[in-house]
Structures are given as structure tokens and as C-alpha cells.
Automatic annotation (TrEMBL):
GO cellular component, one term: small-subunit processome
Keyword Nucleus: yes
Subcellular location: Nucleus, Nucleolus
Segments for region (Disordered): 74-154, 332-351
GO terms, molecular function: rRNA binding; U3 snoRNA binding
Protein name: U3 small nucleolar RNA-associated protein 25 homolog
Encoding gene (name): Diexf
The keyword Phosphoprotein appears for this protein: yes
Residues annotated as domain UTP25 C-terminal: 571-755
Composition-biased stretches (Basic and acidic residues): 341-351
Source organism of this protein record: Onychorhynchus coronatus (Royal flycatcher)
Span of domain UTP25 NTP hydrolase-like: 294-561
Amino acid sequence: MGKRRSGRELLRSLSKKQKKHLREFGEEHPFYDTVAVVVVVILMLPFQSENSDKLSAESDSETEVEQVSVYHKLLATLRTSPESESEEDESESEESRESEAEVNSEGSQETGEADGGEEDKNDVPEEKAGTTDTTEQTLDQEQDDGADTSCDPRHGVIEEFTDVKHESEFSLETNFMEEESGDCNADTRDSNPFKQHMDKELEEKEIEKMSTLPKTSSQSQWPRLGQLTFSSTLEKHKTLKADKEVDVKQLYLHKPLESTWPKVNKQFLSSVNKPSDSPFTPLQRELFCIMNTYRDLFYPERNALTNGEEIRHAYCLHALNHVLKANAQVLSNNAKRRDRKPGSDTDDYRDQGLTRPKVLMIVPFRECALRIVHIFINLLEVNDKKKIDVSNKKRFKGEFGSDPEEKPPNLKRPEDYEAVFAGNIDDHFRIGVAILQKSMRLYAPFYSSDIIIASPLGMRTVIGAEGEKKRDFDFLSSVEILIIDQADIYLMQNWEHVLHLMKHINLLPLDSHGVDFSRVRMLNLNNWSKYYRQTLLFSALQDPQINSVFNKHCFNYVGQVAVRNVPLTGSISHVVVQLPHVFRRLEAESITSVIDARFQFFIDKVLPEYRDAIMSHTLIYVPSYFDYVRLRNYFKKEDLNFTHICEYTKKAAVCRARRFFLKGEKQFLLFTERFHFYKRYTIKGIRNLIFYELPTYSHFYSEICNMMKATDNGVDATWTCTVLYSKYDAQKLAAVVGIDRTAQMLQSKKNVHLFVTGEN
């Protein structure tokens, strides 16, 4: 009875968001650690394996040929592996008896984060009070007279809510441009980038050329962005130069934005700026210069600590400017159609797509969506007296804001961790936003929305899979701007969701959805929407999978711009312990065979050197979960003395593994990158370090190496670090050791020995 009562109490301690995630996916969000419900990992694996079958076949060489690899065989064993089942059953039975005693005993030996006990009870990062609180206060200050508050999200929402009450008020078909605004005249200028891009009529031979011929590229050096690569298929593109000074009036912003943008962006500008100075930071100026030409953009240097919010404000300005111009054109043409003479040509009024959504914004967490909507509201409010009407904002704040009850204690985490995981970090959401002149409608049905803000998982669940009865992706047919922010985080969530989205965007809809075909642009009727779509991709790193999306799924006829700066030093310069680094090169014939080649190289040449008892306290860092499972199964088969920690390991098992490894009772510790991404624990007792593969985030390399200084009784002379790499790891290698060393290491087939003193 005591155990059952304890389980029920722990279940009640979970928040609504945690319980919802637990019901839907059979596991708690990896970010949280206080799982009280017994969830066998094997129940979750079919969901992972379904997506991972495709992911394992996706290669950095951009091939789509599906091959039978060892991962497919591994996944088959995962579903029915008796070893996994017995291991989990044993872990479950031990956990109920030992968890409390182990946490207490560990707490007497270690303090702070190293014990893993007290911390696991409240393993949620501290919120960044500044931006989050400001966002919520803004939504609090605005009175929501027309909001539907009948269903409070704090008391649970069973069905997804959409606002149907304001349908006619936000309909583009039944509304007209307000005469007092006069914005429609500005949007008809031929030099307007929006009009130039959307009004260009491509020919069939140009479409065929883009589908068959390779792109031509050229290089350019910009003051702030650095090395840029311009690529295009249709024509020899003109060299685009960065504007040193930007006049807001020359950007053809929609009328309200000209006056509101300088005020909204003031927080990022220097305090000594004069009113006549540019309302953009140097980074924003160059980014917006590219965005405003409607070229695709890939910027792989986004940093949550430094420039993340600058970038968010810049793309929000561009997206809102596009929507306001598009809607103003429709409303203006509504008035012209109403006043036109009978029998006049109706082709002059083709100003819409097959469906209404024009902008799709993919962000990782609800907190990101909250900040985006906050920026939209500020950009639309000309002054404090002219507040815009925002429908359902109270509900929005409740569902996307952070719960004060979940505010964690002060835990020591790196600054970048706290910046990424600030606020509401639920990763399953989607919301439609409709904007019409001086009003904004949150929770608009997708087919009545101008902007859709969603996470990859939120889009995956509504798009569905082939064969499912309830699935819908017609609303993606006429997306004109796709913004994917913080793409690197999706590598830690599920990259397959991003690929699934890219395969279903800009397809012909299966239903008309009440569209007036006399108003639909010919580019949409010809199924050429993808050639007009602008894709803005922001990431904290360059990765082959992210590069593949930008190269294979972006078809903009204007061309693409990618920032291609190379790291000069690398994260190895941030290692503060004196440590010999041995980089061991493995050979592989192709990118598809490197997975098997790495495993064979490890068990044949690396692992035998560490089997001796002298080489104890060896941590093996494994970026891929499937490599981790493969190694775990091999270690079991060979009956090696090891323990393991992954993102699905329960808190009692984590405490146990850390204690065993610290005391030397277990010689090896298998450690996954995704666990480190979500937890950032300091693992004590490391004397020997093996990077089975270079980390996805380069700064993880120095973080893991610097964990060695946490061991008080360690001897510097005995510490070792071994890294496995191949010629296909050039980008990751350059981020760790720098571009100069990378070039030397790729040319030489010998092992490379580096000794870092902390001053390199």
C-alpha cells in the first residue's frame, strides 16, 4: 500500500503538460526527470523506430536510396529483445527498493550537482525572468473583452481549441480596405520587393531548368555575416552588397511597421544611437537585406545567449510585413471588384493562393511562440493609445506561458542551457494566427490563418502518416515564407519530423476548401508554389542533415544565400585541464558504411586497449542513440563491467550509474549526447574519455573534457582522451580543432596527438 500511495502522490505532482505528454507518447518529456509512473522503454521504441528507419537511411551525401543497414537489423531486435526486457524488468524491481537508499547514501558522499539525488527531484532549469516576464506582463496588461475564457487551460483541455466566433470578422473575402489607412497605394509600387517577387510569371522552360540543371554559385564577403555563398539556377545572379546604412522608408515596409519597428527594436541598439541612426543592428541590417530580396537564407551562427532575440525580431518583421502587404492587396482588390463594371476582366485580381496560410514558423518550444506573438503585437501597436484587438489572448497566455508553480530552484547550469530552456519548454503545439488591419486573432482555424506557429512534433501529428484516416496538410499548399528557427534543437528532438514536414509542404490540396479560383494566382494553379517559397533557416551549427534540407528542399527561383564561415580555433581551446588528445582516423568507403566501419574500428582497435583494469573510469560519449544501443548490446554480450545512461534512463538508475562509476565499481560508462543536452549533469570520476563520434555541439567537447577536473582524487598524468573520426566528419572536426588542423588531419592518415594545456 505504501508503494501504491507513493506512486499516486508522485503522479499528482506532475503538471498538466507533463501528464498530457505522458498520455500521448508513453514517456515523459526528456527534459523532465521526475517520472513517477512506471513506463517500460520498450513501449516507446516503436514510435522512435518508425521514424528512425528513415533517419538511418538518410545520408550526408544526400542520397535517398533506402538501404538495409545494421540499424534496421538492430531495430528489429529492439522490438523483441529478451535482454532489453529482462534488463528493464530488473531495473524496475530494483528501483522501488533501492532508489531512496541510494540517493541518500550518494548525498552523503557528494554535494551539490554530483549527487544526482536532490537535483533530480526538481530537474527543471531556472527561467530567464527578463524576457518571459515582460512577455507575460504585456499580455496581462491588455484586456481581452472578446476572448473565449469558458475553458481554462489550467483545468485541462481535452480537444484542441480553435476560435470560430470571429470567423466573419477576420474573413478576407468579406472585408474591405479601410479608406483612412491608405496603405494599399504603397503596396502597388513596382519597386516593392513583395510585388516584384509574387508577380513574376515563370515559364515552363524555366521550371524545367530549375528541376534539371545544377546551381551556379559565387562567393562574397560581408562585414558582419562574413563569407556568403550565393547560388541560383535560372540566371547569373547579381552580386548583392550589404547596405552600410538603411533608411526604413527604402525598405517598403507596410505603413504601421515604419513607425513601430524602431521602438520595438530599441532594446538591441546602442544607448548612444541618435534618432537618425539605423533602427537595425549590424547583424539585423544584413540579414534583413537578404530577407527583403526574398532569397532563401541559411544562417548557422544563431546563439541563444547573444544574437538569438535579434534574429527573432528580424524575421518577425519580415513575416509580418509580408502578411500585411498580401492582405492589403486582397482587401484593396475586394473594393475594386465591388465597384467594377459588369463584364470586365477578372484576371487582374489574382492575388491569393489555394489556401490562406502564407507564413509557417517552426520553433522548438511554446516559449518561442509566446515571444513571437508578443513581437507581432508590439509591431502592430502604433502607440499606447491605439491598442490592437487580440482575440483569445488570455487563453494563449495560459497555454503558452510558464506556470509559476513549476518555477524551479536555483540550479547551476551553463548560461546557454538556461537560455535555451527558458519558460514553457513543451514541444508539442501549433496555433493559427490571423491578422486583419488593426486586429489579431489567435487560435484561428488553419484555413482562416495567415501565420501558423508550430513545433515539428505539432506539425507531424496533424499531417499524419500515409494510411491514417485523420490527417490534413492541404493548409500547407500555398505557404510563401517558411521560417525554421533553432534547427539544431530538432536534431535533439526528432529530425524525422522536419523531413516529414518538408515532404508535405507546397503540394496541391486534395479539396478546394471554398476557394474562389478566379482570385488564385496562376503560380498556385500550376503547382509552382515551391519555386516562389522563401525559406529562412537558422541554426547554431552547420550539420550535414541541416545542409541537406537547405540544398534538397529549397527551390526558390530567386536563389539561395548561405553563410559559410569556418571556425579558426575550435572548442578544444576551451579545455582547461592538461590532457593529451588522440584523434584516431577510421576509413570508410562511403557515408552509408561509416556507421559499421566505426563500430568495427572501435571493438577491434580501441576497446582492447581499455579492457585492462588499469584503464578504469572510462566514459564513452555516444552522440547517436542507436550507436548507444548497439554498444550496450555488445558490452552485455562480452560481459564487460559497465553501466549506462541515456535520455530514457530513470532517475534512480542514473543515480546508481553515477555512483558506481565514481567509486570504480563499473569500469565503463556509456553516455548519450541527448542525455547531456537535456540534463547537463557533471559526471565525476572520469579518468579516460572516448568520443565514439565527434559531438554535434562543438562546445560539448570542452564541457565533457572539463568534467575531469571535478574529480578530486584524479591524477593528471593518467588522464586520456581518444576521439574517433572519419573524412566525413570534416565539419564537426573543424568546430572542435579549427580549420587549419582539420585540413592537416584529413590529408594525413595517421593518428593525431594533441596536448592541450588550457592556453591553446
